[in-house]
Hints:
alpha+beta; 11-stranded mixed β-sheet; 14 helices; 27 strands; globular
Amino acid sequence: MSKNLTTREEDYSKWYNELVVKADLAENSGVRGCMVIKPYGYAIWEKMQAELDRMFKETGHQNAYFPLFVPKSMFEAEEKNAEGFAKECAIVTHYRLKNDPDKPGKLMVDPNAKLEEELIVRPTSEAIIWSTYRGWVQSYRDLPLLINQWANVVRWEMRTRLFLRTAEFLWQEGHTAHATRKEAIEESEKMMNVYADFVQNFMAIPVIKGLKTETERFAGAEETYCIEALMQDGKALQAGTSHFLGQNFAKAFDVKFANAEGKQEYVWGTSWGVSTRLMGALVMTHSDDKGLVLPPNLAPIQVVIVPIYKSDEQLQAISAAVAIVSAALRKLNISVKYDDRTTQKPGFKFAEWELKGVPVRIAVGPKDLENGTFEVARRDNLSKEVVAADGIENYIATLLSQIQTDLFSNALTYRESHITEVNSFEEFKSILEEKGGFISAHWDGTAATEEKIKELTKATIRCIPLDRVEEAGSCVFTGNPSVGRVLFAKAY
């Protein structure tokens, strides 16, 4: 099967879809809008999961697991949250099938097995978790409650794309309860910073930290903190969100605690999450027309070694040398694969590992053994070097670190060159269509203006940057007073 990809310039969307499939990350399943994450793709997600899980536990959080199903009445308890997710809900109404008397060999819903109360397949878990917290929190001594769960959720999306938007996806969702408003806000900000740390230092993707507008805020939250990234096609992608819930869910589910003076108070809540959509961000930020480009910190295979030989004797000699190098690399916690398959030629292997984005490839043949050298190729910039075999493990360790740094630097350079300040709506529309990226513009703070701009251009306010300069100005659309610039973009 040909592994040639549609180029990004030809059709960015098609390039992305082809790459995800051809690089063996995921494929569409027999269930509409759902995906099968293949072993290589899941290995990347596992590395993401392991690193995030470590970071969560270092900040005092514990993992738990809550039910997939939420009774409809429970889901409705927090009205804004229920209303916000209502159009995406999948609902279980019956609990049994039976043979269809009119169609032998077929099954039908048993009308006598209707549930007393319909169950929502969780689109998010606030309702089931806060109903549980009611029994866990009695006193200020029970707080803070710092819980995370790794789970799947279902949101019945009409238009789906692998990793970016699927009916079912994997994620983590943190849900915490605190004694004071201040503590809950600090938690929300802390987790936004944890996400930013992970995305920048492991995924090599620069992000902008900010606040969502009221229109874009999580349903049921008082404030939503976010990190926004920019993809190679100039579209933004929300890489993670952390929500300050105030006392909204505590009041909806009657979660109270006795303070130090013995008085009853409602707790203060947060929730925060990232999902397998990060896989899409990883693909779109770094990859090229030859395939995936993976940052070393998340690559399942960091180094692949390919032997080049003509005889079994040559292969044996190469394999003996490779065993020594592989052991030295593994001692440095570098994952390495020796591709000694006899069913494929070196050229095929080079192309395959290039497509799969392995950061470093080492080629070794009989002449390399004679000269005491290896050929080392970088996936990110496709450069090659001949390197002495002696001490090569330290060279590779330094190289992997350099690749990680360079990927972030390249993505940052692109992002910075695609943040454009505009002062008129004509300029806004021109930049959006011709250049893309983030548009920094004054906004009058009204939902009506935000919605009108979205209607006319399909651009949304991605965030109000946390580091923005407060400055008087005129709204780019209405001309009304503005207190500062916000970032607009078309987004995934």
